[in-house]
Amino acid sequence: MGTRKADQRSPLAITAASAGGAVALALILGPVASAASSDASSEVVAARQDKASIARQAAVERSAAVRTAAHDAGVEAAAGLKLAETGSVNTTPYLLGGTVFLVLGSGMLVALRRRQAQYSD
Length: 121
Hints:
About 80% of the residues lie in helices and about 0% in strands. The protein is built from 2 helices and no strands. The radius of gyration is 34 Å and the shape is flat.
């Protein structure tokens, strides 16, 4: 094999060097960023707790509304109300057509493999 000149670098070496530089930069800047954010972290925690309590209260109100609506729907259903008849689509032709195309496609693949094996010998 040939030797490389000192000024020629492989793409792998360049990638490894840039990845190492990125890790070193993250290790250096990581503590700096965490020290700057620790001052504001108590304010952030308080704001998150406020948002969480508001979200919990809203969830409780929604669940109460859902329970009330479900109860009302149950009362209406018990009163003899029925859902509308929507009918259904006959899917038999689609099922048969899909099966036919699946069989034809697999048959074509088998024929192709047999031909390929015949000419490769």
